[in-house]
Amino acid sequence: MSGEKGEGRSTLRAATETVSRTLGPLAPRVAIVLGSGLGDVAEGVRSATHIPYADIPGFQKPGAPGHKGELVAGTLEGVEVLVQSGRFHLYEGHAPQLAVLPVRVFARLGIRTLVVTNAAGGIRLTFRPPTLMLIADHINLMFRNPLEGAVEEGEQRFPDMSDPYDRELRGIAREVALQQKIGLDEGVYAALLGPSYETPAEIRMLERLGANAVGMSTVPEVIVARARGMRCLGFSSITNAAAGLSAAPLSHEEVLAAGARVAGQLATLIRGVLVKL
Ligand code: HPA
Q1: 3-class DSSP state for residue 217?
Q2: C-alpha of 217 from chain center
Q3: Tens digits of residue pLDDT in 30-56
Q4: Candidate CATH numbers 3.40.47.10, 3.40.50.1580, 3.40.30.10, 2.30.29.30; the one for domain 2-276
Q5: Are 74 and 45 in contact (CB under 8 A)?
Q6: Catalytic residue among 77, 92, 186, 254, which?
Q7: Where are the domains of the chain?
Q8: Which tens digit of pLDDT belongs to each residue from 183-197?
Q9: How far is CA 211 from CA 196, 219, 239, 240, in A?
């Protein structure tokens, strides 16, 4: 998508119209963005309508392995949801505006709650992968911001970011984790551009900055969601110890495999939260 304001707006309008038309009478309340290796979370969606990205104006083919490229609408625990299976990463060379196009579509459809998930490297030593982290806050080290440029309709120039991951939703997630006996510590997610994994020195730096996990996504989506007043809830699947914290070299295959091992727990958590909304 071009950064040109007029073209960006018409793409957003066209994408929203296409999704809205395909949804028919469905009115999703919650959008769920799936990270690497977490595609199975979409499996439980009932009466599913699949909308391939190829059918949505402005949406591109996702380049990262393990990302499908479709929206899935339907119900989860009786709640109407829209699942984004496949995200656009900045490391693929995409403009931040494309990374957040789906979230802008969700907002225009009237969705007020965004659940984001990702794969991440664990920096906190007690994170033994594969495990899940509840995102309490984030640090944007991508050195890009999806709100760069002209102010989009429905967004503010300087949105508040003091409650990026909704306090109440985090409380519900912790409650569900306790009930379901799923380990879920809270932590700070640092987003870097990637696509190379970090060096051990970079991980030591991130640790000193207060980061507990590191990844290459999520932050652009949450910034736009907050600019549009949506409430966010975020989970990281800690798929590996961050660079230098274990002897093993990092690989995307390991990330996908570890993600698949906690995808079931993540689905349980998300479903549990939906029931309590
Ligand atoms: N670093 C960055 N992104 C990641 C990692 C990591 O160690 N693991 C999964 N995504």
Answers
A1: coil
A2: 7
A3: 999 998 777 777 888 999 999 999 999
A4: 3.40.50.1580
A5: yes
A6: 92
A7: 2-276
A8: 999 999 999 999 999
A9: 18, 14, 16, 15
Spot the catalytic one: 15, 240, 242, 267.
Answer: 240
Question: Average per-residue pLDDT in the chain?
Answer: 93
Task: Report the C-alpha gap between 191 and 130 in whole angstroms.
Answer: 19
What separation in angstroms does the CA of 49 have from each of 5, 40, 59, 226? 31, 16, 17, 27
Q: Which atom of ligand 1 is nearest to the CA of 121?
A: 7
| Ligand 1 atom at shortest distance from the alpha carbon of 242 | 7
Percent of the chain with pLDDT over 90: 82
Helices (H) and strands (E) in the chain, counts: 7, 9
| CB-defined site of ligand 1, < 6 Å | 119-121, 197-198, 214-216, 239-240, 242, 250, 255
CB atoms near residue 210 (< 10 Å): 12
For the chain, percent helix, then strand, then coil, each to nearest 5?
Answer: 35, 25, 40
On whether the pTM is more than 0.85, the answer is yes
